[in-house]
Amino acid sequence: MPRLIGTAQVTSQATQAEQITTFNSTGTLTTQPRTTEVEYLVVAGGGGSGTGGGGAGGYRTATGFSVSGNSPYPVTVGGGGATGAPGVNTNGGTGSSSSFSTITSAGGGYGAGLNSNGQSGGSGGGGGGTGDTATTSGGAGNTPSTSPPQGNAGGGHTGTGDGSSGGGGGAGGAGATGSNSAWAYGGLAQESSITGVPVYYAGGGGGGGTAGNRNGLGGGTGTVPYKGGGGDGAAPSTGTGDAGLANTGGGAGGGGFASGGIRGNGAAGGSGIVITKEAAVNYLAGTSSCWDLRQVFRAVSDGNWTN
């Protein structure tokens, strides 16, 4: 009977496709069967505002996070902090944390009411305006501490007389300090291309303004789409700050105020987001002991085919 010395093994290639999963609300990631590591983006909810801008939610991203194939991993998407009670004498609410597996990003710190300091958080909230010679400070960023940092500090208020309250910190930069001659922008956002398209997240909320309309814009530049969901602070004539954009972790813009007793309202922070990416995997689907006719021909030519 014919035989082939060193019987050919025919192999076939198969592919597990790249998979990008976006969570706008809490859920579970079940990995594909051959996934061993993922890239992730975890952004917490942004802080709500009083007169100071809300801090952006903590921002964490990395590649090469080890996982097991065909396994469930819990995902939590944090909500944005609530607006302060009507009138900017009250602080906003703290943003809620977001998490994927063991990775957690801290919620953004609240923007403060009048004469109060901003709260620490993933990014810190802005300090409130004062209407007099008092000084307020913004909250610290990156709480709890991680490496690399999750965010930056909020700005405060300084100087005499009415002026802009502090801007909330952002993932890409600190919030600005407001005064009677300076606008307090929210901290810069941070860009991510995990989905294949550049998107900005976690911009700080702008500080609320006073006489002279010195209200800060959210996210540093105040231009969409680069502001990362940070809300604009309000001028006295408009009163209410802009809310942080949902599923960006943007901080809320502060409410406007004036020394004559006009008190605007703060706003709510933007909810967070979690995104994971599983890379495509090429693998050997299996082997077969069937003879390959080309190898049979070569075996005959070499004298390795016998009857």
Name a few traits of the molecule.
1 helix; elongated; 2 domains; disordered N terminus; 307 residues; mainly beta; four-stranded antiparallel beta sheet
Give the SSE order as H and E letters. EEEEEEEEEEEEEHE
Contiguous uncertain segments of 5+ residues = 1-8
When the domains are counted, the total is 2
State the separation between the terminal residues, measured CA to CA. Answer: 5 Å
Structural class: mainly beta
Helix % is: under 10%
Concise description?
The protein is mainly β and 307 residues long. The protein contains one helix and 14 strands; from the N terminus they run E-E-E-E-E-E-E-E-E-E-E-E-E-H-E. The strands form five sheets. Strands 3-12-5-6 form a four-stranded antiparallel sheet, with no helix packed on it.
Explain how this protein is built.
This protein has two domains: 42 residues, no CATH class; 262 residues, no CATH class. A hairpin with a 2-residue loop joins β8 and β9. The protein is mostly beta strands and 307 residues long. The termini are close together.
What is the topology?
Elements: E1 3-4, E2 10-16, E3 19-23, E4 27-30, E5 37-43, E6 59-66, E7 72-76, E8 98-100, E9 103-105, E10 190-192, E11 199-201, E12 273-278, E13 281-288, H1 293-301, E14 305-306
Antiparallel strand pairs: 1-14, 2-13, 3-12, 4-7, 5-6, 5-12, 7-8, 8-9, 10-11
